[in-house]
């Protein structure tokens, strides 16, 4: 039965690839860099979160009673970029399991490197955020930005401060670092993942995939989509499967994903809140299609001149990920007070401009630090090089 499943998988993979030629090493690197920075920009859109005048969370879908167009567009974009974490995790797994010989040495060296490139920057950034917010709390305890953060400085205890910086059992103060924390935990358990990949890859995929779909954290993760898609990336790498997606398959996946995101955004119109568990499972499952759609689309765009220009900023992806929050929360608060009216067009202007300003500040600050304080930037960027 396992052989039949694997055979069917190979047939589907061949159909997805179609006539797409193999990417060169340079083209693949360019596509990965393009994907990294594009996905992090998508994450900034996602972390815009609520309109300041919204009644319900965009994670539920549009508001069916007011501001329907604005809340539909924002919620649709949010659901579309739910593919960010899975695709970044898959790329990370594909790169992580690239060693050829001596698995034990390869795993040890990669775990050490990921400690420097993932966990140390996590601790530094969150310590920096905590210091700044403590100062703000002392100066202006009623500041609106404090209410946006993942800690109540007025009631926080010792464990809250520990987690705010080290993310041991709860999300850190810079909540976007939950992904970095889970990615590092995934790296720590990579010897176990290696055993599954080399001894029982299908069983491992089914186990991790089931945990992800039902939302089980396996007791050590915040979310299991990171470890599941990391595992899939490793499986693709170890089996030597081509990573190309054909043009026809790309447009099919993209059309299907757009339709899924639209339907999910409209869910409050159709089923209200519906069955939360069923909706969550369906929302998670559509990310599989999103990963294929986005990766195929990136392969079409990256080789172009525009794609090449964007890919040059790939080395800044981690820095932008680290710096964009609480920056976007503060940008939102400042710009909202400047709106002439809380109408839907102005809401959408606020949404787009808030993201663009946040991205511009993040990338601009990163470029400035690379030139004026390269050692500090290297620490903040996890040692990643900007070309």
Describe the overall structure:
Helices cover 71% and strands 0% of the residues. With 387 residues, it is mostly helical. It has one domain (2-380). The model has no long low-confidence stretch (mean pLDDT 93).
As for the number of domains, it is 1
Number of distinct beta strands: 0
Residue runs with pLDDT of under 50 for 5 or more positions: none
| Strand residue content | under 5%
Say what oligomer this is.
single chain
Outline the secondary-structure elements.
Blueprint: H1 2-17, H2 25-46, H3 68-80, H4 84-96, H5 103-139, H6 144-147, H7 158-166, H8 178-188, H9 190-199, H10 201-214, H11 225-238, H12 247-265, H13 267-271, H14 276-301, H15 305-311, H16 317-336, H17 344-372, H18 374-380
Helix pairs in contact: 2-3, 2-4, 2-14, 2-15, 2-16, 3-12, 3-17, 4-11, 5-7, 5-8, 9-10, 9-11, 10-11, 12-14, 16-17, 17-18
């Amino acid at each position: 039965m396992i052989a039949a499943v694997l055979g069917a998988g190979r047939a589907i993979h061949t159909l997805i690839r179609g006539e797409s030629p193999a990417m060169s090493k340079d083209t693949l690197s360019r596509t990965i860099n393009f994907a990294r920075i594009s996905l992090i920009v998508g994450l900034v859109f996602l972390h815009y979160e609520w309109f300041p005048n919204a009644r319900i969370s965009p994670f539920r879908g549009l508001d069916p009673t007011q501001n329907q167009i604005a809340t539909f567009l924002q919620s649709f974009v949010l659901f579309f970029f739910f593919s960010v974490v899975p695709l970044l995790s898959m790329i990370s797994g594909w790169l992580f399991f690239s060693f050829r010989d001596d698995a034990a040495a390869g795993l040890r060296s990669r775990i050490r490197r990921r400690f420097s490139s993932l966990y140390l920057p996590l601790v530094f950034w969150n310590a920096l955020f905590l210091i700044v917010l403590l100062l703000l709390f002392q100066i202006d305890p009623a500041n609106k930005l404090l209410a946006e953060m993942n800690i109540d400085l007025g009631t926080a205890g010792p464990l809250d401060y520990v987690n705010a910086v080290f993310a041991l059992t709860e999300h850190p103060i810079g909540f976007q670092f939950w992904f970095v924390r889970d990615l590092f935990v995934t790296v720590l358990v990579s010897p176990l993942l290696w055993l599954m990949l080399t001894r029982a890859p299908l069983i491992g995929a089914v186990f991790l995939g089931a945990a992800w779909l039902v939302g089980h954290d396996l007791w050590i993760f915040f979310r299991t989509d990171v470890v599941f898609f990391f595992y899939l990336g490793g499986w693709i790498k170890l089996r030597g499967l081509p990573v190309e997606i054909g043009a026809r398959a790309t447009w099919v996946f993209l059309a299907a994903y757009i339709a899924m995101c639209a339907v999910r955004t409209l869910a409050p119109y159709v089923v209200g809140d519906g069955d939360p568990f069923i909706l969550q499972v369906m929302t998670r499952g559509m990310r599989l299609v999103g990963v294929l759609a986005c990766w195929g689309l990136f392969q079409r765009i990256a080789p172009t001149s525009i794609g090449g220009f964007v890919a040059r900023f790939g080395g800044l992806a981690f820095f932008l990920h680290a710096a964009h929050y609480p920056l976007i929360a503060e940008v939102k608060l400042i710009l909202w007070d400047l709106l002439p009216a809380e109408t839907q067009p102005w809401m959408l202007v606020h949404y787009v401009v808030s993201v663009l300003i946040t991205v511009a500040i993040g990338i601009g600050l990163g470029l400035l630090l690379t030139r004026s304080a390269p050692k500090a930037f290297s620490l903040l960027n996890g040692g990643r090089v900007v070309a």
